[in-house]
Known about the structure:
The chain is an alpha/beta fold. 42% of the residues lie in helices and 15% in strands.
Amino acid sequence: MMKDTTEIPGFTSRVVEGERGAIFLYEGGDGFPVLLLHGFPETNLMWREIAPLLAGEYKVIAADLPGYGRSNCPDERLRDAMSKREIATTLVEAMRSAGHDRFAIVGHDRGGRVAYRAALDHPACVSHVAVLDVVPTFDVWDRADARLALAFWPFSLLAQPSPLPERLIFSAPGAVVDNALGEWGTPRDVFPDWVRETYIAALSDPGHIHAICEEYRAASSIDRENDAADLRAGRRINCPLLALWSESGALASWYDDAGGPLALWRRWAVDVQGRAMTGGHFFPEEHPAITAGVITDFLKSRMS
């Protein structure tokens, strides 16, 4: 039986309506606001254990990305609707509607890509940014090789023209979720059955599947172009940036020739710190207390 997932313990669920569509979120705690963003193929429930730990110090908002989970799919009449720029703008507007003009962002996987784009495009709104198990999208593609194609298959497969990726996911959403939860370095037993079932349900709606594929298509095209334009213009993230990555994952070794993940992020931000974390790609769910502690220490040390 699927567990009732209407709330994270101690949190309330809420839908924030906006001109760009509705955003589903959980919120709890009190203090400076911190926005938590999930990755693929998950929802905001990936923060189910970390959010209550952070809520002892902060107002915590865990949102489903536009096009994911229970958030609306963007109107495709909006050009590049699933680009990180448009997603970031949608979330910034949603946070304003929720009463938060300035906040920190913590993003894992796809959420990390949205997080750093928000910090670049909305510097007045983003006080701190934490990016978990990602390097910038431009660098991913600029350094892509056979390892990326085989290990990070969503980058290439989901970016293929419609409708092939959509049909593949719709035909076997459970296989997609099980591959991620079981093969990306984190033990399968980290994810309770009800969480797995929730992730599968979120990946079973045709409209959301299409939006997710559009997000990956954007990563291979307009997101790369926007990143490249920022590099050429010398635009950098001015707020403090925390980069965390799996010590057993790809980021721990693939980018050694560039100096590792911190060296890559220092091309993009003026104030960078970070470290490798015990666990696989889903280390926030594998080691929530440790992850929450590192995030809290970062926010406290950089809070003005």
